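A common beginner's mistake is to predict each chain separately and then try to dock the pieces by hand. The better habit, illustrated here, is to supply every component at once so that their relative placement is modeled jointly.
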Amino acid sequence: MRDDDKTFRLRYTGTRFEGTRLPVDVLSDLPAFRDLLVAFAKDQFRTANTDKQRVPKGFDKSLSFNLVGIDNGSAVPIISWNRNLAQANLPGIADDLENIVDASYQDVVRLIDNAGSSVFPKSLSSEHIRALNKLGSGLRDNERIEFQGAQGKDGGVVFLDNFRRKALITKVHQTYQSRHDGTGVLRGAYMPADGLGYLDVETVVYGLIKISLEPDFIKENFDGNLGSAVQFDMQVELDDSDKLVSIVDVFDIVVIDAQREASLERCRARLTGFRVLSDGWHDDDGMAISEAAFTAADRFLSKRPNRVSAYKVYPTPDGGILFEFEHGEWDWSVELAASGSVEFYGVQIDSDGELSPQKYPAIDDAFLKLFDEKTGRN
Amino acid sequence: MGEVLADAGEILFRQIHPTFVEEDGEPSSQPFMPSKKDNNMLSVDRSSLTDAAGSHALYVANGQASVAVYGLTVGEFDKEKLPCMADPLGKTDKLTANPAHALAEYTAHSANQQKNIAKRLKIVARARGLLFAS
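With all components supplied together, the output reads:
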């Protein structure tokens, strides 16, 4: 083992492991641990390199681990990442890989620690799940694997036992379902003589999607509307990267009326105009509007076009975007920060009522729920 | 800073940056609260010492952008617990003097509170009407 190799210590606790014994039926945990760490490492690489769909050739091989010893203290197998091999497989990026290995180990630890408090990711890739199925599969009740040096939320060392394994394996799936409402443009309408027809709808979030519907419904509602904006409300199945896997159910889909479409177009044109604002646009103050704010604004318009004719749109000096509009007795604001986070607030026009700013990390379900409660859905 | 403004009926002019006006002329609430660089003090001009057109002309001549002037009275600021005070500005190498300059003080209110205060002030100012447009 070289001095600069990175080592991980997994401490097995339980009577079977006393006297530094490591039963051979738990040895399969070691490649499983490696596989889980590699699965997270691939996620880390893709997150840091959004322009690349795949990890570079040799990435997998460069994450090679060796069992370099077994310490006392029940049994503590010491696993070492082979930095030399990484250097040979991916010359020049061993330092980057070291950071990725560190971050991936933290991902593994966090996943297992969170499972102890019933916090699970929405989904994981099949690669993660395969590794999880193997890791700790030889453990018996009252046995556990401690990740030495990793402190959990409860202040103790992070560990995997059968309870956490079962919770993780049964709670985490490769896909999950989510309600998705938004707008798109109708690109095609197909009405076969027999069986389901479908619409091709171009969406901001998922690109071109096929929505299966009864041919009569398509003929009655969409025939002759190619190029029109449509609004939809669907249950969708997404993978762990939030990519659309399938449309589970369609609750509502309608052609947006021409006036609303024109209002949407007006708002989008105004947003496009904000792209010319450079730093200092507000009398030497004012930051250029961030991409995160533009994305959030697109999402807001797509999610809630129902009040679009009332929306007034302004840049904010902090690099965000502010939607203001009146509805009923209230004057509302949806403020999108440069980070893409959201504040929703408002005042009653002719009396003292007010909603103080409510913060959300994004245009998410919680924000939309409050927005609908306050402004009505239709 | 100078004297506290006591005439509740005196209108104070507020300049509106072009980006804070929508295509239909609707102003944003943002000009009715101080931005971060303003240190909780909103700049206005006193109607007892200038008029909306004069306020706008001086503002633009001093290198800042404005396409509209709205007004709020000292009493309307006071209703939101925003004391107003005279703050005449002397001539500098680059700027013409502005004896009508005054400040509305927002320091008693958090940034969150200021957002809804600004919305209420915009509603009041809009009801009074646009006082000058370029």
